[in-house]
Amino acid sequence: MSYRLSAEHEELRRTVEDFARTEVAPVIGDFYERGAFPYDIVAKMGAMGLFGLPFPEEFGGMGGDYFALCLALEELARVDSSVAITLEAGVSLGAMPIYRFGSAEQKATWLPRLCSGTALGAFGLTEPGAGSDAGGTRTTAEVVGGEWVLNGTKSFITNSGTDITALVTVTAVTGRAPDGRPEISAILVPSGTPGFTLGQKYSKVGWNASDTNELVFDGCRVPESNLVGERGRGYAQFLRTLDEGRIAIAALSVGLAQGCVDESLRYAAEREAFGRPIGANQAIQFKIADMEVRAHTARLAYYDAAARMLAGEPFKKEAAIAKLVASNAAMDNARDATQVFGGYGFMNEFPVGRFYRDAKILEVGEGTSEVQRMLIARQLGLPA
């Protein structure tokens, strides 16, 4: 068993690392301050094939694997998480459900555009009163005259309101089981469909250069053939998507954690206090050492989960562990990095200020830390 990267994976990692340092780092601070979506950067990522990394060439993908996506996410997040989450959500939440569960026609229609990065997809699960609790879903869809008619609201949906957003896959209650439980299905809604509008644009603590919107469906009609996967299996399909996505979010978290180490090492060598670099002080050395330990440990966790997934082995517990450990590492490292920087760490012009603002959502998005602990406990055989 080896955690050394293959030649292909290492080449990809280096390519994305160089792209992040030369193309993203010099300009992303301005996008972040303005709350603007970085279309040019996304277009360059698309041209590099990053949005198609884990998809077959027949759909316009790169023919790689999910681990390749994770490596790209880690390197991007070492510089900026807004760009990284745009890629993660575009692949894991936008394109992957169609690839995993979509019909042949849906794949042929949508995947080439999504893989090229010329179009983005989104997934609408969370609602004002429902997230991890599927029973709280209030959005409905019923068949009328051969069409699905959707009504409801979705919250916190990434990549849903950009100029290149092409579709959102929506979970909705499409009926009731005999015991009264909701039958939840996934339905593909193209952007621009009448009755599908953007609600409020959120004022966020972090990820300020990514797109996040509320979605409103009011008598929105799409063809019955827009059902993604089996009727009544929408939530189960999304749980599968989340299992994979947790590995990707773990990789993104590791990138942020490692970025905190990178910036702290540079600053500790440059900043002087009491006549010498602050990196000569044991208090700073120990703080940075602990930061590196967290990043290294979290990286091993997501490598392990990804290896199990690619081998076709069960990986639900390992994905939850990776997401929990890595998001904790990101939050802890962001806090310590801002402490190393002192007052400058409180300034958004420095990357660590953005890292601090971006880190918290990693303990919440795609399953809170409490949900990860619940999943781990259940996988250990503890009662539900």
UniProtKB/TrEMBL annotation:
Its cofactor is FAD. GO terms for molecular function: acyl-CoA dehydrogenase activity; flavin adenine dinucleotide binding. Gene3D superfamilies: Acyl-CoA dehydrogenase/oxidase, N-terminal domain, Butyryl-CoA Dehydrogenase, subunit A, domain 2, Butyryl-CoA Dehydrogenase, subunit A, domain 3. It comes from the Bacteria. The keyword Glycoprotein does not apply. Keywords: FAD, Flavoprotein, Oxidoreductase. Residues 6-117 form the Acyl-CoA dehydrogenase/oxidase N-terminal domain. This is Butyryl-CoA dehydrogenase. Belongs to the acyl-CoA dehydrogenase family. Residues 232-380 form the Acyl-CoA dehydrogenase/oxidase C-terminal domain. InterPro entries: Acyl-CoA_DH_CS (IPR006089), Acyl-CoA_Oxase/DH_mid-dom (IPR006091), Acyl-CoA_Oxase/DH_mid-dom_sf (IPR046373), AcylCo_DH-like_C (IPR036250), AcylCo_DH/oxidase_C (IPR009075), AcylCoA_DH/ox_N (IPR013786), AcylCoA_DH/ox_N_sf (IPR037069), AcylCoA_DH/oxidase_NM_dom_sf (IPR009100). The lineage of its organism: Bacteria, Bacillati, Actinomycetota, Actinomycetes, Streptosporangiales. Residues 122-220 form the Acyl-CoA oxidase/dehydrogenase middle domain.
